[in-house]
Known about the structure:
- The protein is an alpha+beta fold.
- It has eight helices and eight strands; from the N terminus they run ααββββββαββααααα.
- α7 crosses α8 (about 180-190).
Amino acid sequence: MDELVNYILQFGHLNQQQVDLVKSKFQRREIPKETFFLEAGKVPKELIFISDGIMRIIYYNHKGDEITKYFASENQLVGDIANFNLGTPTAEYLQAITPCTYLAISKKDMDELSQTIITWDLIMSKIAAKCLSDKVNKISAMMTEDAMQRYLNFLESFPTIANRIPLSYIASFLGITQSSLSRIRKNTKS
Length: 190
């Protein structure tokens, strides 16, 4: 729970009473490997803070191909914040790649924090902006790079997860085939 509090405090100040209230609203849960936390077409009911494990955000393109959009690991807030706030269905899936432990907050509890803590909405806005900025910066840089550079940047951007997830997910994220990724990995080791 301390990691969550430290994460939130990067975006604004809370006194001890507010910290205790925030802690009381998050519930510790676990999800098995390969299980979907969130599915397209459903309204997100919770936002989560990953304590241990790796998840990926995926979608299916017009051809029905599964595309890995992003990876999230320890000490990251994850979820479709916009659709969570609006109560509308998401277009993405959130899947545990490894067994995960996370802290979850419901919409009702989030609304209660918003009504109780004056600065809560500002803190959440800053968190949402940071998450969006991180994703956009990582994804947009990949648009102009060749496959080798995308892989090297992936290793730099996600250093703690590269050896913990299947190559097929990395290849999907990089927009290359798994055989191309294997060749690139072989060339980077020599």
